[in-house]
């Protein structure tokens, strides 16, 4: 066998050194095998590099070294995961598997004192590195010490020894001895000292004495001739054994009674002590509860104060937000008037104003634009502080974005003699809010140009695995070291002296920093006074964070963004000298005295500020006929009475706001489709979304350009006219469908009439007139004429619309529609009718017939297979009449179900429809107080459900489909 060596101290030990007998390890292996199985024990020895095999360790005459025993103990404890493994394994020492025949000899004739003494005397034969010594041995108590010539590395072997000594009482079926350790040489003591306590077994000699006395008595009885020798000896021996056993059991029971009494007294003492401790704990608990109650009251009062403070803070925040909203409106209103007036004046030709006057107007325009920008920055900063800012992430190619952003700055840089450059490669697109990032770099570049009197301004791009880096580097005046720590603070100035050369509010860089932090990015600055500054922006790469309020990003990255008024570099830097000419060509402005003609569209202007209303009147009156209102309530009344072609309204007004007026207009059938443009000083996305969601057609933020307003009004009126023409085309198509059916139906009676005229002429012009024939032909002609008259009246009633509701029989109306489409029905198509609602509905019959024809025509087109069926049914549900038109045709795809009522949407091939049929059907049904829904399963068919009110109201007026010969545009909502 190859021996591996373990170094301990200054000498080497082979693993099979004669230090510890393998009898010591036998308990370890036996317990592990019993507890975890022989296969796992073999697997442990296979996985760990032991130099000694299991067979070697199971041979009782072999020895091992102490280091090997410690290594084996470490492995077995780790494999078992049981911290008490060594103590439990030691308890297997006093068993027949370990002691062999000696176990039965000790059990029959030995005692615990003998076991302990012999174990200590024989310890040198199985442990040659240590020595046991009995310091005290008394009845049921032992003090034992162990001194080792080699210090053990850990306490595993100590635990094994304590378990082995504790196991001896188990030989007699007693519980293991209680072993405590008062000191340990592993922990630095000179020796290990163990204290053992146990319960001695009772001597069971009564049965043996009884056996001896019984045998002697049997021999004596047989000698005296009292009985047969074998019988006498056997009987008396058994009687003696029984009597001795009874005496042994009696003594054992007495001893157990005494032990139980002692335990009872001990338990009573413990109970008394526990009662005392319970009383103490109860008093402590009562005191603690009092303290907890007092503390709870204090915490409740503190929470109440905190909640009150929080509520007060929230109220202050709300009041601050309202204040800024109101200030925004109040500041933007005069600014709007100023900018509108200046814009209108600047649009006039150069012959109107002398050059000095025009230069003053341009200076005023730039100053007003700068004031507007400062107000916007202050409001943006307030929204960031209140946490109300939501980002609209979209992919952005930063290089192209910066290239377009630098264009307006290049003219100013050339004028100042400063080089403006963009360096670096195109990095990975980043997910950002483009409008807010635009403001960030607008601010940084404008600052760099402002503070650079000569040299260059460089915008440098590069990227790494995590970030896209943008550096704005200038050779300007630089920033003092003491100012670098505060330049990103709100309202801080790098030069706060009374002689500072450059103006500013101290908001710009604070807004830059908070905007970048909102993007999970950052900004740093390094600067040296007199040599320039470097602003280093970091933008994180990767996908945008998912938010419910964020829109889906566009598929293609944004390449550039056009610059508007707020991004005018000239207004940012306020250069003096030659004014900047805008790239947008001015629209011709008509003289103020010119007024629109009688055929011009009518526009209702709702604005509470008299100055703005007067200015807008001057702008709009050359093009439109104007109606004016000073608040929402007055505007609503005028709109319902005059029916204007378009409404322009402010949002914040007294009595009734623009949004409240908008809600009332959309709730009224007479004004539901009137185009409306909102004017407001609030530029937040949420405000625009709120207005558009409520039904506004467009949204114009103050201040705005008069040309922009005129363009938006014209766009809405053109959209309205386009919808009018499309609706008229759709109605003409439905009428054409009806006239085709009428022509088909009138052909038969017309042929009969023409065929009767020739016999009538012959009978009247012959030499012998046939009066009977003439009368018969006249009757046939009269019958055919009646049929043609009925068909004509039916067609007129079918297409005639009115403004007053009348009773309409649903069955007759549906039958007329089916009859009108009968020429379109193929022979295999079956039309089923099931009319369960006999009550009439109050509606316009011509409009309803148009709905039925459109729906039935769609159903007939959808059924293109053999065995096709269209079912027309009516029923009553509560106060509604329900009309269902069901087909088993191709159905509608799920992705198209939400779009079928949208104008101009069609599932037919190009050229086969305008896409307005269902939109008009919905509009007609909604105007008549009902609702329409479509249920469909693709490939299996469609069910259209129309609900109409049954309440009898003959005086109810219906909103006309036609007004001044045109169908009104409708704001369709499904």
From TrEMBL:
Domain Histidine kinase intervals: 326-543, 741-952
Q: Response regulatory domain: which residues?
A: 602-717
Major subcellular site: membrane
One cellular component term from this protein's GO annotations in UniProt: plasma membrane
Q: Which UniProt keywords apply?
A: ATP-binding, Cell membrane, Coiled coil, Kinase, Membrane, Nucleotide-binding, Phosphoprotein, Transferase, Two-component regulatory system
| UniProt subcellular location | Cell membrane
Write out the GO MF terms.
ATP binding; phosphorelay sensor kinase activity
4-aspartylphosphate carried by residues: 650
Q: What class of enzyme is it?
A: transferase
Q: Span of the secretion signal?
A: none
UniProt entry tagged with the keyword Coiled coil: yes
Residues in coiled coil: 271-316
Q: Which CDD domains match?
A: HATPase_EvgS-ArcB-TorS-like, HisKA
Q: What is this protein called?
A: histidine kinase
Recite the lineage of the species.
Bacteria, Pseudomonadati, Myxococcota, Myxococcia, Myxococcales
